[in-house]
Amino acid sequence: MQHVTAVKTSPSQKIADELTHFLADTYALYLKTQNFHWNVKGPHFYSLHKMFEEQYQELAAAVDEIAERIRALGSYTPASFSQFASLSSLKEATSEINAENMIQKLLKDHEAMMNHSAMIITKAQKVHDESTADLLIQRQKAHEKTAWMLKSSLR
Prior knowledge:
The longest helix is centred in the N-terminal third of the chain and has 29 residues. This protein has 155 residues and is mainly α. α2 packs antiparallel against α5.
């Protein structure tokens, strides 16, 4: 009779798994923001085009930071569209929408990212992973600022 030994997942692996989903959501939000940058139109085109560009560039830098943290924790970093699509909880934007709906969709996603980061911060702090907690606190601040800018752009 063979005994199967259960493989315990380390605290670092659990945090890396959480970060993997956060990375996928960040990448999905990056793509959506870049989509809106390319496709926005209307009377506020220029200001929204510029704002979305600043936002997707900030998200691109964040993707790299999050991926590097996953690697520092000793885990593999997903890096394909199919992997990100299967891991992300954010919805793609695949149809043409007006500028106000773009802002509303991005606002909803940034608020979801704030909630997601808060949950992982709590888990990271419980296992004394202050480096991950610090990274996510910075991400939370960035999402809060972006959400504020998006809300301020609505009527």
